[in-house]
Amino acid sequence: QVQLVESGGRLVQAGGSLRLSCAASGRAFSTYAMAWFRQAPGKERAVVAAVSWSTGRIYYTDSVKGRFTISRDNAKNMVYLQMNSLKPEDTGVYYCAANRFGTASTTTSQYEYWGQGTQVTVSS
Fold it and tell me: CA 33 to CA 54: how far, in whole Å?
């Protein structure tokens, strides 16, 4: 069983930066793949970035490549999403997710554990 708690979301101006954090509980954290999903108003939840259990594979959706960085600290049971050069279209609720298979999947159905979400609002 894994419990996830996100933090770090807030209102920020376009061009600014934020770092989201996800604290995970559970002894097997280091074997789980982790991901950040975003749900914009009126849209489906979609993957932003994902990292395999070994950090050997990292995925970014095209719209955030070069601006966002996902990282994990297995010793601290933490996952981070560094977001730079933020745009209004980055606005949404950001969810941390975990899957026990260890692969950096990009679909919601592959993730068993979810946090409650943290709101990111980027003003123009």
Answer: 8
Q: Are strands 11-13 and 118-123 parallel, antiparallel or unpaired?
A: parallel
For the chain, give the secondary structure using H, E and C. CCEEEEECCCEEECCCCEEEEEEEECCCHHHCEEEEEEECCCCCCEEEEEECCCCCCEEECHHHCCCEEEEEECCCCEEEEEECCCCHHHCEEEEEEEECCCCCCCCHHHCCEECCCEEEEEEC
The tens digit of pLDDT for each residue in 41-100 reads 999 999 999 999 887 799 999 999 999 999 999 999 999 999 999 999 999 999 999 999
Tokens encoding 103: 């692969």
Whether pLDDT at 20 is above 80:
yes
- Residue 62 CB neighbour total at 10 angstroms: 6
Q: Please name the residue that has the structure tokens 């601290």.
A: 76
Query: Cα separation of 1 and 30, whole Å?
Result: 13
What is the structure's pLDDT at 1?
81
